[in-house]
Structures are given as C-alpha cells and as structure tokens.
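Hey, quick one: can you model this chain's 3D structure?
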Amino acid sequence: MAHVAKTVTACILGFIAIPAWAGPLDEMAIERWAKLREAERFQLNAAERLYREHQWKPAADEYEKFLKLYEKSEGAAYSQLKWSHCQVQLRKQNAAIKDGYQSVLDYFPDSPEAPVAALFVGRTSRDMGDIAPAKKAYAKVLSSYPKHFTAAMARLDLVDIAVKENDLQARTNLLRELTYDVERKGPTVEPCVTAARQFARLTFHTGQFEEGLKALATTCTEIDLPVHLMHPTLGGLPQVVSELTGAMDEPTKKLGEKLTDASAGWLKVQATNWLKDPKTKPQALGAWYAAAEVRRQARQPDKQKVVYDEMLAALGADDQTFGYLAQWYKDNKQRELARTTYAKYKDVAAGQGQIAHSYEEEVKYDLAAEIYRKLAIADAKTAPKWLSAAAMAYRRGSKPDLAIAVYRELLTSDATQAAEYHFQIAETLYHASRWKECIQAYRGTDRFPHNYQHMATSFRRLKQPDEAITLYRQIIAASAPHASWALLQIGHAQEEAGKKEDAIKTFKMVCDKFPKTTEGSQAHSILNEKYKIPVTLGGAKD
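Sure thing. Here's the predicted structure for all 542 residues.
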C-alpha cells in the first residue's frame, strides 16, 4: 500500500519546492554598507568572513574591535548584534542576552537591529528553557514593533511554546492572527504562510474542512488548492484523514468521516468545474484523483472505487485511470480483475507489461517471463527492454540458466549494450552462488570496484582468502571511497584464513586510518569485544 500512496501522491502533486525561510536576521542592507567609510568596511568585512566560516570566537573579537574603533558608525548596532549571535554559538547565552542583545536595545533603540535583538532575547531565553522570560520578551516585540516582520516571527515562536505547553487556545489564536490579521509583505510573508498552513492542519483535525480550506487559500491560488491540500507539509489533508478515521474512539472517527466527506465533495466539485475548460483539465484530473486518495486514506475502499468508476464514465477509456482502478483491485485482493483492467489499456504493450508485473508480484515468474517474451516478439524496437525484464523474472524465479540464455540472446540482438549484458550475466551467476563461473564472468566487465568486490567475495566462498585479499588491495589502491571497506574485509579474510595476528593488525590499521567511518567503528568493536584489545579510534591525538 505504501508504494501506491506515493504513486498517487506524486501524480496529484507533481513537484513542489518548499522554500526555507529565516528572514534578514543577520544581514545589513546594502545602502547602509554604502554609508560606511573604507576603513569601517574593511574591519566589518574581516569579521563577516570569519562569521561565514563559523569561526565564532575570532569573529566575535573582530566585531568587538569594530565597536571599540567605530562606536558611532552606521555599522555599530549591526556589529553588536552579530557579536551577540557569536556568543550564542559559543554557548554563552546569558552574555549574549545581557551584554549583547540588550545593549543593542539600550544604546541603539532606533536602529534596524533593535527589533531583531528584541526577538533574539526571546529566542535565546526559549532555547535555554527559560520560558517565562522568553514570553515576556516576545510580548515586548509584539507591543514595541507590531508592524515589523519580527512580530510575525515572535508569534510563530510563541506557537511553538504553546505546542510544548499543550495550550491549544493560545496556539489557535496566534495562528489565526498570523493567517488573517498580519499584513503579508517582505520578510513577513513566509512566517504568515507557514502559520496559515499550520492553522489549516489544526482546523482539519477538528473536522472543520471549510475553515482549513479558507486558511490554506491565503497561501495559493484556487487552481493550486488541491495540490496544497494533499501535500504532506502544506495542507496535510490525507494524513489528518487517516489519523482521525483510524482512531479508536467513535467521536474522533466521526470527525474523520465528516472531514473526508467534505473534502472529497469539494474536490469533486472542483474537478467537475475545471473539466469544462480544456486548459484546466490537468488540474481537474488531479482533483479527482485527490478525492479518490482521500477516500483511500479514510479506509473507504468502496467509495474510492466509485470515484474511479465516475471518472471512466465521464472521461471514457483512460489508461491512467485504468491503472489506478487496477491497483485498487490488487489492494482489495481481486488480482484477476486487476489483470482484466490492465488488458483494457489503449497502450497494449504497457497494459501487458503491467499484467506481467502482477504475476511477478505473485511469484509466478514463468508466466511473467512468457508475457515479456511475447512483447519482445511483437515490437523489435522495444525488444531489449522486454527481454531484459524476462531475464530478470527468470533470475527472481531461481532459473539462472534461462536468464543467462536471454542475456546471450541480447548480446547478439542489441550489441550496443553488450557491456551491460555481460555484467548482468556475471550478476546472475553471483546471486546463484556459482562462484567460479561468476569470477570468470566479472573479469570481462568494467564495473569497478563492484566487480572486484563480488569477485573477492566469491574467492572467500571458495576458501581462497589470499586471492580475495589481492583484489581488496587493488580496490584500496584505485578507489579511495572504498578503501576503508576493503581494508576491513582484508581483516575478515585473514581471520577466515586462520591468520589471527595479521587480522588484529589489520583491524588496528582500520581504526587508525579511518576512525570516523562505519568500518572504523566496526573494527573497534571487533578488537574490543572479540579480542579484548582496547584501542583508540584515530590514535592518541584524537
């Protein structure tokens, strides 16, 4: 079911990039930079470079130097703010508040940095767990700078506190204010949009679809609303529906059913309206599929199927809708009806391919391979695709010789991909545990270091650890990203050869050379737990 949900969601949503936002909390406007004298810019740039490199202590020193040299400069308040940020990063939060942000408020109350400093008094207190002072500081931001973007951010921070304190009323009020009352311009837009999405999900949880839809509508155009509704980090409607309808108590289930009916009904109305205009047909189909997905999330399979039947009645034969209907049959253990539906595809080859895949899902690999072979005969252009699928079906069905026969057939019919088929022959032999044959097959492939890795494993299965070690050493010499893995494998191979002392030396080498890798941790564990040898990862210097 999980892969089906992802497929449906991808179809409905397309791709949405979710922008990160922070606001200009540690930047100074270009026009203010222009007011600095050359010496001031030089000093401030030195501090900024260190700040960008996260060298907090040297950066703080440079900002402090600026303050001492140019205390009446346009950049003084900015330097004081950035010094304060550095103190937070250095885990000197009290100093940041008392000697930093508060100094901005005391000495530069009219500067652009003052509202930001006021916000960070609250944030720093909150992050230290001092909730009462944090709330007081946020209240001051709201009263002193009601129109500034920091007031919106303060409200959003207070929402986080309300969530932790389980104060639903405060959370609801704050989100409602940000959604409807705060003017959205400049840096204020993103916190308000974030709040509107949170408010929508909050109201969905109470079964109020119309109110949640109204909130979400403040963040996008009407045509985009279905996409936003269904997106997990925007409207989050499917998750809310699933949570409510899956609840143990009856009242919550009823809320979920109410939300499901309201949202699916709205989506169907939108789909019907948008179908009237060819330009909005894609959005209409997306809304219709969204209605079916809402029913699925609500555990209403019969009503979900009704949506697909309605679509087919309205649109006629459509492969995409047939695909969803066939998946519905599979999900509801009616696999023969699913295959009957795939057989209705206009794209006959695609439908037959889906039928073959359905047999693979039932571990009926011979039936699948038979269909793939017929498809290869039917169309020479796509024959390599279908023959490759047939070979893989044989492999999954533990019939490696039949798979290899198909790959050899492809070597002749599709010579341009010969290297790929040689590699697949080697892979087939490897996964069939035919060690000697696969070693020979891998020698003719160019998939380094994968081929060497599998050849080495095969030698170890054949009780030939020295040959495996030779291959591992070649991997170390030619592929730095795989060096730690190969060195650890040498240790294991030496153990298998009965060379205990050599293995211990190798494991110590892994710890010394690759202390911060997974292999370093594994070698450390082997030495400590198996051989009772205490070692330090990376040596004494670390």
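One thing worth noting: The longest helix spans residues 250-274.
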